[in-house]
Amino acid sequence: MKTLRLLTATAAAGLLLAGCGEDSGSSSPSPSTPSASTPTPSTPPGGDPGPITVTRTGGFAGFDDKVVIGTDGVTTVTQRGKQTARCKLDAAFMTSLTAAVDQVDWAAVGTTKPTVRHPDDMIIAISAGGGLARLEDPRLAPLATPVSALLTEAANPGKLCKPV
């Protein structure tokens, strides 16, 4: 019963995050080997977090998405089977995303690459400020809302992300 609830919750989260940018591919994620390295100091509040990278891989839909956000808000969206898109994030959204990134202690997060936990595991990972972790890591809680909006909107540039 717990497994059914977990699968249902995972499926619902995947559909919510997929939004209109759903990919109909059906490949499974390949297992990853954790790679640990020395964490770097976290970004000081109001400092430059450097580029922010969000990846979404796996899941029952076989996602393979990568969103790279430059410090100027110019964003590159790569999705399997689709042409790479570039857009510029809305200034207000970029400010809220940067504020959320600044709330995370990236040195404490570390840099261990997330690995597949079960078949059809959808991994949403965020890399910024020298750290890397899954979105569901409690230390990344401030990023949950902006990253969900980013994955929904950036895949189909519009109000949040204007084509450049």
Note the main attributes of this structure.
single chain, 164 residues, alpha+beta, disordered N terminus, seven-stranded antiparallel sheet
Structural summary, described in words:
With 164 residues, this protein is of the alpha+beta class. It contains 4 helices and 7 strands; from the N terminus they run H-E-E-E-E-H-H-E-E-H-E. It has a 7-stranded antiparallel sheet with strand order 6-5-1-2-3-4-7. Strand 5 and strand 6 form a beta hairpin. The longest helix has 17 residues, at 2-18. The chain starts with a helix and ends with a strand. Mean pLDDT is 74; it is low at 1-46.
SS elements, strand count: 7
Number of helices: 4
Q: What percent of the residues sit in helical stretches (DSSP H or I)?
A: 25-40%
Major β-sheet strand ordering = 6-5-1-2-3-4-7
- Mean pLDDT across all amino acids: 74
- Cα distance spanning the termini: 48 Å
Sequence stretches where pLDDT stays below 50 over 5 or more residues = 1-46
Element string (H = helix, E = strand): HEEEEHHEEHE
Q: Which structural class fits the helix and strand makeup?
A: alpha+beta
Calculate Rg over CA atoms.
15 Å
Largest sheet: 7 strands, antiparallel
The 3D shape can be described as globular
Oligomer: single chain
Beta-strand percentage range: 15-25%
List the helices and strands and how they pair.
Blueprint: H1 2-18, E1 52-58, E2 63-69, E3 74-79, E4 85-89, H2 91-102, H3 106-109, E5 122-128, E6 131-134, H4 144-153, E7 161-163
Antiparallel strand pairs: 1-2, 1-5, 2-3, 3-4, 4-7, 5-6
